[in-house]
Design a protein that fits this description.
3 helices, two-stranded antiparallel ribbon, mainly alpha
């Protein structure tokens, strides 16, 4: 059975969302991906942030695991109190 590509979040399980994010990260061109050390340090910073709620940054609305995978991305709070 193929997964629906036009489902709303309320129609998906959290596992489906996570699997989709991992699949998208795997498809990123290597030149655009953050290396594992950078990715993991970003995730740890976000884990401690008050803006994190269920894997989503409440400041910008992104899934942090996806945003952290991009070499060129930055934290929306970088200027305030976080270093990515």
């Amino acid at each position: 059975m193929e997964k629906c590509k036009r489902c709303l979040l309320r129609e998906c399980s959290k596992e489906d969302i996570y699997e989709d994010i991992i699949t998208r990260i795997e498809k990123l061109p290597e030149k655009d991906k953050a290396d594992n050390d950078l990715y993991n340090s970003r995730i740890e910073i976000c884990r401690k942030c008050e803006q994190l709620l269920s894997g989503v940054c409440q400041k910008c609305g992104c899934y942090i695991e996806f945003r952290a995978a991009f070499k060129s991305q930055h934290c929306p709070l970088t200027k305030a109190n976080k270093k990515w």
